Amino acid sequence: MRYVFSLFVTLLLACGSVLANGPLLQKLQQIKEISGIRELKVQPYTEYYEFWYEQPIDHNNPSKGTFKQRVLLGHRDFNAPMVAILEGYGIYSPAESELSKLFKTNQLTIEHRFFNNSKPEGETPWTDLTLKQAATDQHEIIQTLRQKIYLNTKWISTGISKGGQTTVYHRYFYPEDVEISVPYVAPINLEKIDPRLEKFLSKLGGTPENRKLLEGGGKDIKWQIFDFQKRCLENIDKLMPLMQELTQAKGYSFNKVGGTERAFKLTILEFPFAFWQWGNNINDMPQPEEDDYNEIFNYLVKVSSPDFFDDKAIENLQAFYYAALTETGMYAYNTKPFKKFFKDEPEPIITFNFAMPKGYENAPFNTQQLQDINHWLQTNAENILFIYGGSDPWSATAVDLKKNDKCRKYIKANMDHKCRIASFENLTRSAIVKVLKSWLTGTEVEEEIEEVLIY
């Protein structure tokens, strides 16, 4: 998922040279699985610690050894609710989350297994990177802290994008760990290459009843995007020197995808997804009559950066690709609309198999597990509140709750992958908070207002 490439770490903390002897610290020091405790200063928490939690590599076979998983814990009060952020990747910020601000909670952040330094030494044991193993990591940490430190609190699990998926999967395997879950912009894919993603993306930027927009000579945004992609491919000889220059300046390499030119073509194919995911403005696009290839190139790589296909970037995110292509699903690139530019491609659909670890390119995909999770969401899941942006391509596979009224889904029309509770209008935002408060207190929801996305 591209969202991880646009996150910027804000240095909001300063490390204390000596650990304060706070009541939380004393409790953490008594837990045998916890080591490497480090105090951080993060507002508005009264105590804040980074530590490492020892986990089995394989929860079903402890003899395989262990690894240490990075955890952050911000403390307000032992009786305050706890927000547990279940990261889908590494931890990118210690800052107070939206939910922690809303409900004045403590905050626990768990790095996902096999990202950053939360992995075993040596070769990564890829077959131990499964939804169930990761959920069990989170279960162990949550239960340890619930039983030994936060005995009388309500817990809310949450995560963004892949972290939102992680939140759903953890709740599926361990439904009693937390009382409430709030997955943000979480795709619920049902296949290795879920066709709903391409179908949804092909409609984005079209206008109702084929009415034309005033921008860009009266063409719908989706056709302006298509024309821009075509323009880039038609002028690839003029743009490639700029790509080579950027590659050299940034130190990129593109061996995994098949070379610099193929990486550039993939960057062009990725453009619509990146455009909509991050809410770009069509009026910033170079106009059709302009022949400034520097401007065309700069706009392309600003929206769809080639670093997505860089060897090091792929290696750093290999745990994401392995999970996506074995259990959680992904999108692909359809070259048919531009087939004359992709005559050398063996297949019209380009998948992300090039990003898989060596030797795992043909690993089987667990479709049945996704079907089981989806069925659970539509029947037995409860107290899960989903947030989506209506123009985010990942909303193509937004959860379909069907008749399950024990959960809620809110979609903010014309909002992208950055959609949060704060993105909604006042009435809907109030309704969302009211639902969450009712779940926290066990009271009935008096009324509910949902924003409905109209395509």
What does this molecule look like?
This protein is α/β, with parallel strands linked by helices. Helix content is 35%, strand content 13%. The chain is built from 14 helices and eleven strands. The chain has helices at residues 23-28, 98-103, 131-148, 162-173, 195-203, 215-218, 221-234, 236-250, 260-277, 293-303, 311-316, 318-328, 367-379, 426-441; strands at 34-39, 47-56, 66-75, 82-86, 106-110, 155-160, 180-184, 333-334, 349-350, 385-389, 408-412. The strands form three sheets. Strands 1-2-3-5-4-6-7 form a seven-stranded mixed sheet, with helices on both faces. A two-stranded antiparallel ribbon has the order 8-9. Helix 2 (98-103) links the parallel strand 4 and strand 5. The protein is globular, with a radius of gyration of 23 Å. The protein starts with 22 loop residues before the first helix and ends in a 14-residue tail after the last helix. The model is unreliable at 2-18, 209-217 and 448-455 (pLDDT under 50).
In short:
With 455 residues, the chain is an alpha/beta fold. The chain is built from 14 helices and eleven strands.
Topology at a glance:
Layout lengths: L22 H6 L5 E6 L7 E10 L9 E10 L6 E5 L11 H6 L2 E5 L20 H18 L6 E6 L1 H12 L6 E5 L10 H9 L11 H4 L2 H14 L1 H15 L9 H18 L15 H11 L7 H6 L1 H11 L4 E2 L14 E2 L16 H13 L5 E5 L18 E5 L13 H16 L14
Parallel strand pairs: 4-5, 4-6, 6-7, 10-11
Antiparallel strand pairs: 1-2, 2-3, 3-5, 8-9
